[in-house]
Every structure is written in C-alpha cells, then in structure tokens.
Amino acid sequence: MPAPTKFTTYIDEHADSFIKRLAEAVAIPSVSGEGPRRKEVFRMGSWLEGQLNTLGVKTKQVDLGKHTMDGQEYQLPPAILGKIGDSPNKKTVLIYGHYDVQPANKSDGWDTDPFTLVEGDDGRLIGRGSTDDKGPIMGWLNVLEAHKALGLDLPVNLRFCFEGMEESGSEGLDDLIKSEAAKGKDGWFAGVDCVCISDNYWLNSRTPCLTYGLRGLAYFKVTVSGPARDLHSGVFGGTVFEPMTDLITVMSKLVKSDGTILVPGVAEMVPPPTKEELEMYDKLDYSIEDIEDAAGASIAVSSDKAKVLMGRMRYPSLSLHGIEGAFYGAGAKTVIPASVSGKFSIRLVPPQTPEQIEPLVQKYLEFEFGKLNTKNKMTVENLHGGKPWMADHKHWSFEAAKKATEAVYGRAPDYTREGGSIPVTLTFAESLGVNVLLLPMGRGDDGAHSTNEKLDKSNYIEGTKLLGTYLYEVGAISQNA
Ligand SMILES: C[C@H](N)C(=O)N[C@@H](Cc1c[nH]cn1)C(=O)O
Ligand SMILES: [Zn+2]
Ligand SMILES: [Zn+2]
C-alpha cells in the first residue's frame, strides 16, 4: 500500500521548514567523544525529546549511569525512549537513531562552521551530523509531523530508541535493551515486530539500498612512556630511548600500505567468498570512480570492483587513527614527547568477535615491542568494541522497504553490507528476537565523520518520504496477515 498522496505532497510542501528543523539540530554540537561538549549531548537529547512530545510521542529519558573517558568520570547521555500507537491490529516498528555526532572543528579543514547548516547552490545541506545521524532522525520527526498536521492515522505503532553515545561505543545501551527485553510484556519494547535503523549510506550517489550487514569493531589505544617529562631533543636526542620512535615502529607493524592486516590470526579467521558471492558483487551498481569520487582522490587499493567492494563489506580492515600526546601544532618544536598513545581500530566481520581479536592484538604488540629492546614501557587498552551483524534480507520488513524504495525512487534497491559499525544492532536482533533493517537516507559521498559532511536536500526530502512509505508498506502486511 503506497503512502497517501497527501502525505508525500505535505513533505514536498514543507521542505523548507524540515531544513530549518535539521539546522536547529545541527546547531547543537552534541559531540559525545569530547568532555567539554558532553553537556551539549544532553541539550540535544532534551531538544529531541521536546520535538517528539510536540508531535504526540510519549517519552521517557533513561539514565545510563556514568563512564570514564580519558581518565575522567562523565555522566552518560540518556537514552530517549518513545511510544506512539498501541493498536493490536497494527505492527509495531522500533526506530533507532543516535543524536550524538563525531567531533568537528573549522580548523580540521571545513569550508564553513561545522555546526551551522549551510545550504549550497547544488542542494547540499552541509553540517556535522547532517547525514550521521541527525538528518535521518529528523526524517522520522518529519513523518510524524505530516501525520499530525494532516490528521492521518499512523499505519503502524511506533517505538523509538535514541541514544547519545553511538560515536563513543554506545556505552550503557546494551544493558538497557537487555533489561527491557527481559521484562517481556511489561518492557518498553514489548510487542515490537521489527527494528528499522536509518544510519548508514548508499554505496554510491545514485542507487538507494537496503543494508543487511554491518562490520563490528575493536578499538585500541597503545601507550609508550619513558621520560618523566617532555625533553629537549638537542640535549637528549641520541641519549635516551624515545617513546615516539618506539610507538611509530610498533604501529608500522600492524598493517601494510595496501591494507593487509599483519596481526597474525586476524585475516585468517574469515572464510573466502563463494562463487555466488563474487557474482553478487559484480551485479552491484558500483565502480572504482564511486569510491574515488567519495574519497576525493584516485587512491583505491585495486582496480578490481569486487575486491574493493569486499574491502568495505566482507573483510576486516585495520586503520590507524591518531597519536595523542605528540607534537602536532604549527612551527618546528624540537621536543621529545614523554608519553604518546597511538589509536587504531579493526573493523570485524563474521565470525570475528572483539573478544577473539583483543588477545591476538595484545600478544602481537608485546612481541613487536619486545623486539625493540627499549627501556620504555608499553600498555595496551581496549577502548570499545562491538560484534559484526548480518540479517535475513528476505524478511517481510526488507520486502516492505523494497516496495517503498520502488514507490519513492522508481527503482529497485541494491542490497549491501555496510563497512561501518552500529554496535546495538546485534543487541536488538538478539534480545528482541526480531529482524533489523538498515534503511539508509544519505549517499556514499556524504563525508560522514569527515570535513564538510553533507546530506543532499533530495536525499533528505525523498528519504523522509521513503521512511514514511516504508511504514505504510509494513502496515499493509499487517492488514493482509
Ligand atoms: C555507521 C554509523 N553511522 C557510524 O558512523 N558508526 C560509527 C560507530 C563508532 C564506533 N566507534 C566510534 N564510532 C562507526 O562505524 O565508526
Ligand atoms: Zn558515525
Ligand atoms: Zn551514525
């Protein structure tokens, strides 16, 4: 059952006010990974709850306790749980999204202030969180607004679960989901028939897709310390073991330039692709130009399409992210840093789990560090992790999303596995025992986590229609069932 025309017309006619809603959300710098900005994540949560309440959703904020970040204790931002509709004749869809964002500073290389939404002439809506994940959350709010304004009944019962820590390991949320699930019919998620998450991206900038897999994550911090304080390299260079030299040497042993993971046992865990699977990659609407356009440079590791796709979807990868404590400013400071911490992470695929990967990494780093015969000390911490996830893409919820995509975009979606991670996806699937669908709104070149992150206006508006139409298609299933 397609969405009523008056719904889609409303969305088109209110595009400007929907962009204003997104601008308000982007203006709150809700960066979960930076202590000084933690209060903004709380402000964002309250703003979101206010919007939901205005649109008729009953909500509660759930305190997720405290956690330690960079040696300091912080209150975790609340989960915002919402509920609208309780009809026994309708299916119940649980919507998940995250209201926190990645860090962003103009000095990182943004052309404009990251927390001021800018509409480019080409229809790009530029700002931190525009595509990840404030745009999609606003999409759900827009759907609610249209129904309220038009006096239309929602075709399904809706439950919402919005968190403010996804970009920092989703701390606290797993426990909440598990405890609510354990309460059965008295829990917040009672009666949920399926979960829908809009928090990833099309493969390219043309073809909508439905996503049935995510990679997991194991995130590490390796610290090398030696001198009691930073030292003058003219006085101490050549006389002491330098932490930065040791750290760089050890980190250089993790991964090759072409992405080959050097930690023994990690790549070996993954079975090779079958012939059918390889054929599937060939059929996807994707080219090497797509990845190079999105990356902004001709730097793909291979000219073989299937190989590049598998690099994102079905193989683990190891990325080096940064070095804390190193000199990084302008100028030419001649310092030997006393303690430096390298950050790196491994994206995991089935059957890998963080629990299996961590000891392999720990053992290997110790082995490589031991070979240096240095007098410095090394520690390895695991900052956060999550398991990979795969779903049944033949499930009725995927069928509903396929019909919705055809109705809105006039074409069938591609079926993809995402290279990123959304740690709670598997928790929802396992704890609630229902199918989880990933229904992305943005394009592969949106620059999530990067500078000049954007969401195209057409993806925002058509994406809002897609989310609403998906609910109608699920609603049609319940009426026929
Ligand atoms: C895919 C999703 N939009 C996303 O960006 N997830 C993050 C999750 C994360 C984990 N640690 C830090 N962020 C990602 O895949 O990096
Ligand atoms: Zn993200
Ligand atoms: Zn996200």
Automatic annotation (TrEMBL):
<keyword id="KW-0482">Metalloprotease</keyword>
<feature type="active site">
    <location>
        <position position="100"/>
    </location>
</feature>
<feature type="binding site">
    <location>
        <position position="449"/>
    </location>
    <ligand>
        <name>Mn(2+) 1</name>
    </ligand>
</feature>
<dbReference type="GO" id="GO:0070573">
    <property type="term" value="F:metallodipeptidase activity"/>
</dbReference>
<dbReference type="GO" id="GO:0006508">
    <property type="term" value="P:proteolysis"/>
</dbReference>
<feature type="binding site">
    <location>
        <position position="232"/>
    </location>
    <ligand>
        <name>substrate</name>
    </ligand>
</feature>
<feature type="binding site">
    <location>
        <position position="132"/>
    </location>
    <ligand>
        <name>Mn(2+) 1</name>
    </ligand>
</feature>
<feature type="binding site">
    <location>
        <position position="98"/>
    </location>
    <ligand>
        <name>Mn(2+) 2</name>
    </ligand>
</feature>
<feature type="binding site">
    <location>
        <position position="334"/>
    </location>
    <ligand>
        <name>substrate</name>
    </ligand>
</feature>
<feature type="site" description="Important for catalytic activity">
    <location>
        <position position="232"/>
    </location>
</feature>
<dbReference type="InterPro" id="IPR017153">
    <property type="entry name" value="CNDP/DUG1"/>
</dbReference>
<dbReference type="InterPro" id="IPR001261">
    <property type="entry name" value="ArgE/DapE_CS"/>
</dbReference>
<dbReference type="Pfam" id="PF07687">
    <property type="entry name" value="M20_dimer"/>
</dbReference>
<feature type="active site" description="Proton acceptor">
    <location>
        <position position="166"/>
    </location>
</feature>
<feature type="binding site" description="in other chain">
    <location>
        <position position="199"/>
    </location>
    <ligand>
        <name>substrate</name>
    </ligand>
</feature>
<feature type="binding site">
    <location>
        <position position="199"/>
    </location>
    <ligand>
        <name>Mn(2+) 2</name>
    </ligand>
</feature>
<comment type="similarity">
    <text>Belongs to the peptidase M20A family.</text>
</comment>
<protein>
    <recommendedName>
        <fullName>Peptidase M20 dimerisation domain-containing protein</fullName>
    </recommendedName>
</protein>
<feature type="binding site">
    <location>
        <position position="167"/>
    </location>
    <ligand>
        <name>Mn(2+) 1</name>
    </ligand>
</feature>
<feature type="binding site">
    <location>
        <position position="132"/>
    </location>
    <ligand>
        <name>Mn(2+) 2</name>
    </ligand>
</feature>
<feature type="binding site" description="in other chain">
    <location>
        <position position="421"/>
    </location>
    <ligand>
        <name>substrate</name>
    </ligand>
</feature>
<keyword id="KW-0479">Metal-binding</keyword>
<keyword id="KW-0378">Hydrolase</keyword>
<feature type="binding site" description="in other chain">
    <location>
        <position position="449"/>
    </location>
    <ligand>
        <name>substrate</name>
    </ligand>
</feature>
<dbReference type="Pfam" id="PF01546">
    <property type="entry name" value="Peptidase_M20"/>
</dbReference>
<feature type="domain" description="Peptidase M20 dimerisation">
    <location>
        <begin position="212"/>
        <end position="369"/>
    </location>
</feature>
<dbReference type="InterPro" id="IPR002933">
    <property type="entry name" value="Peptidase_M20"/>
</dbReference>
<dbReference type="InterPro" id="IPR011650">
    <property type="entry name" value="Peptidase_M20_dimer"/>
</dbReference>
<dbReference type="GO" id="GO:0046872">
    <property type="term" value="F:metal ion binding"/>
</dbReference>
<keyword id="KW-0464">Manganese</keyword>
<dbReference type="InterPro" id="IPR051458">
    <property type="entry name" value="Cyt/Met_Dipeptidase"/>
</dbReference>
<feature type="binding site" description="in other chain">
    <location>
        <position position="347"/>
    </location>
    <ligand>
        <name>substrate</name>
    </ligand>
</feature>
<keyword id="KW-0645">Protease</keyword>
